[in-house]
Every structure is written in structure tokens, then in C-alpha cells.
Amino acid sequence: MKNSIIAGVGHFVPETVVKNADLEKVMDTSNEWIIERTGIEERRYGKKHEETSTTMGARAAEMAIENAGINKEDIDFIIFATLSPDYYFPGNGVLLQRELGITNTEIGALDIRNQCSGFVYGLSVADQFVKTGMYKNVLLVGGEMHSMGLDFSTRGRNVTVIFGDGGGAVVVQPTEDKNRGILTTHMHSNGTFAEKLAFISPGAHSGYYQKYTEEEINYGFPQDVLGEVFVTQKMVDEGMLYPHMEGQFVFKNAVVKFPEVIMEAFEKSGESLDNLKLLIPHQANLRISQFVQKRLGLKDEQIWNNIQKYGNTTAASIPIALSEAVQAGTVKKGDLVCLAAFGSGFTWASALIRW
Ligand code: UT7
Asked: Which residues line ligand 1 at a C-beta cut-off of 6 Å?
């Protein structure tokens, strides 16, 4: 089997910068609270009626395709990871194909729904296809337009202040070079805590999960409508159509699972943490990344943090950071790079790459 490499990287963030002070104007929050608890100073929001998770993913994909030195018609498989798709269905994969003007209908488009871990899950899928020789140019994209689906009242402040919009992309190709490539990928899940970080309605659950807590019910389970309609007036009136999160519970799990899944990648590949050039964690919260850094004993230059300027861009956060790190010259051929993510599901994952 061949090794797979990331042959091209790209990213896109929308123009509009939203500072913490801007959020102070619409909800009861403060710049100090946001910085102290999350490290976030600002985030970007896409333009309504112009930009979507697909279009931002497409701009990132164009850069990745150019960076890989190929043409869009060379792409033989598309993978799109997002939790903020343009439509409930069809998924963003086909929309991206259309947005890029890829007319080749011989190719497939796969949608990944693993939230913050979506990009690393997608990379693992791409790796398997490329290693086995099935595909030669897999386009993997993470794109998010969170700003269209957040609760900008004080009720939603713990979630809303965190998220930002953007897109990131890579092209995965085979290589003859035995010393380079994706060395190992690891994926995990635990559905027990599915509702701890979730966007529940609209959904086809039809009230099935009414055994859950008052808080969860308030955020999305219809109490008096038994599945006859997908979106009810009650959901609209009571602000159920938003994501919710039990922040501290998610945080406590994240700081355990991040180091675990990173060390799993080193142990399984036989590589030493001492040789790590760069860890790119999913940008969930600067405090989580700092905890992981400390736990693993990494120097500041061994971890990439950009959450301060983009917030948490979920499936897009790792490829945006990776593209920035490559552009900055921090990641070079032969370097050992680790990607790791934890999020809703819960799902968590890692990848170790010899660049
Ligand atoms: O990317 C996917 C994975 N996601 C994560 O890993 C996120 C993990 N969780 C977190 O990052 C943190 O839990 C948050 C940043 C979401 C919240 O920080 P926290 O320190 O856990 O705060 P909390 O939810 O425990 O809330 C503490 C207080 C509460 O007030 P009381 O009850 O103590 O009076 C909240 O109502 O802070 C209040 N609060 C806020 N105050 C000002 C919550 N959000 C805000 C806000 N501004 N935006």
C-alpha cells in the first residue's frame, strides 16, 4: 500500500470581524468574561445571503487545489465535514462540487457529521481510500456558518460567544515516498452524552427523547407535539431552534480525551512525543489547549492556537490552522505534525503525519 500525504492546504475566513465588544451590545456578556474563560478576542461572520458553509469551504478548496498543483477536474472524491450545512439535505458535498464547477459526475461526494472531530474523521476516511489505491486526489473540506444559527439573546451566551465562521481544505494524494505521509489515525465516540452539546431541533426525533432533562427539553424537545411536524410554532416562539451545551461537562471530558487520543497516536505509530514539531488541536477553547499543552509538556512553539482571532470554527478549525501553519513556514517537509479533536457526540480523534 502507498502512503497518503496532504499535498495541498487552503483556508478562507469571511471579512466581517466581530469583537467581543460587539456581542456586549446584544447580550449580557463582557469582553473580560469571554477572554478569561475562552481566550477568544474576535471571530468572523459570513455575509448573510452571500456566504454559506459551502461557499467558504469552496474558497478554501480552491486554495488547496492550487497549493497541490492540480486542477479541480483532477479531484476524484469529495468529503465535506460540517455541522452547519446549507440544507438539512442534500449535504454540502454535492453543493461544493457545484460551487467549484466540477462537472465530472464520475466522482463521489461524502458528507461527514462529526462536528468538531469532522475534519480528522474525514482525514482518516481519505487516508484509507488513498492508501488502497481507490482515489488519487481526495478533496477534504471543513466549513462552518455558525452565525446563522446562534441564539444572540443572553439565553444563548455560553454557546454564541464561542463560535465563528470559516472554511479549511486539504487535498490528499498517494506518494511513493515511504518516509512521508499520514502515519496513523484514531477515531472514538461515546453516544451516552449526545445531548450534552447538541442542536436538537429541527430533527425527526418526534419527541422520542422526552426522558431528558428540563434544560435539554427547553432547548429543543417539543413537549406537546408528537412528531406530526418537523418545526413547530412552539419551537420558534420558545427559541428551541438553537444549539445548547453543558459547557463544564464538555470541558471536563475534553481535557481528558485530548491528551489520551494524542498519546494513542504516538504509541501506535512508535513515534516519540519528543520529536513533535507541531500539535494542531481543534480550537475549542484556549484554556483547553493550554491544559493539553501543559499535560503533554509541550513548548509554546509546539502548539498552534488561533482561536483568539477566529473563535471555534468546529470542522473548519484544524484545516484553517494547518493552512496558516504551512503558510507561515512552521510546518515543513519531514516534520511530525499531530492533529487532534474533541467535540459533540461525544466524538474525538487524532492523526499523526510525517509532513
Ligand atoms: O468545540 C466543541 C467542544 N466544546 C468545548 O470544548 C467547550 C467546552 N466548554 C467551555 O469551553 C466552557 O465551559 C464555556 C466557555 C462554554 C463556559 O465557561 P465556564 O467557565 O464553564 O462557564 P459556565 O458555563 O460554568 O458558567 C459560569 C457562569 C454562569 O453564571 P452563574 O451561574 O455562575 O451566575 C453563566 O451563566 O458564567 C455565566 N456565563 C456567562 N457570563 C458572561 C456563561 N456564558 C457567559 C457569557 N458571558 N458569554
From this structure: 29, 33-34, 37-38, 116, 157-158, 161-162, 247-248, 250-251, 254, 284-285, 288, 312, 343
Q: Into how many domains does the chain fold?
A: 1
Q: What is the pLDDT of residues 268-309, one digit of tens each?
A: 999 999 999 999 999 999 999 999 999 999 999 999 999 999
pLDDT score at 200: 86
Residue for grid cell 465588544: 21
From residue 70, alpha-carbon distances to 21, 56, 96, 265 in Å are 42, 20, 17, 30
> pLDDT tens-digit profile of 144-158?
999 999 999 999 999
Phi first, then psi: what are they for 339, rounded to 5°? -110, 140
CA 74 to ligand 1 centroid distance, Å: 45
Q: What is the CATH number of the domain that holds 84?
A: 3.40.47.10
The tally of CA atoms less than 13 A away on the side-chain side of residue 295 is 17
Mutate to test the pocket of ligand 1, among 158, 159, 163, 261 (most ligand atoms within 8 A of CB): 158
pLDDT in the model for residue 247: 96
Asked, for residue 251, whether it belongs to a domain, the answer is: no
The residue nearest atom 14 of ligand 1, judged by CA position, is 247
* In a domain? residue 43: yes
Alpha carbon 228 to chain centroid, angstroms:
33
Nearest residue CA, atom 38 of ligand 1?
A: 158
116 as an active site residue: the answer is yes
pLDDT tens across 228-251, in order?
556 777 777 777 789 989 999 999
247 C-alpha to center of ligand 1: Å? 6
Contact (CB, 8 A) for 205 and 231: no
Q: Which range marks the domain in which residue 74 is found?
A: 3-175
Give the ligand 1 atom nearest the CA of 250. 8
In a domain, 90, yes or no: yes
Least confident of 12-16, 47-51, 197-201, 211-215: 211-215
Distance 158 CA to ligand 1 centre (A): 5
The pTM for the full model equals 0.95
Q: Is residue 121 part of a domain?
A: yes
Distance of CA 29 from the midpoint of ligand 1 (Å): 11
Active-site option among 11, 282, 285, 338: 282
Protein residue closest via CA to atom 10 of ligand 1: 247
Collapsing DSSP states into helix, strand and coil, what is residue 203?
coil
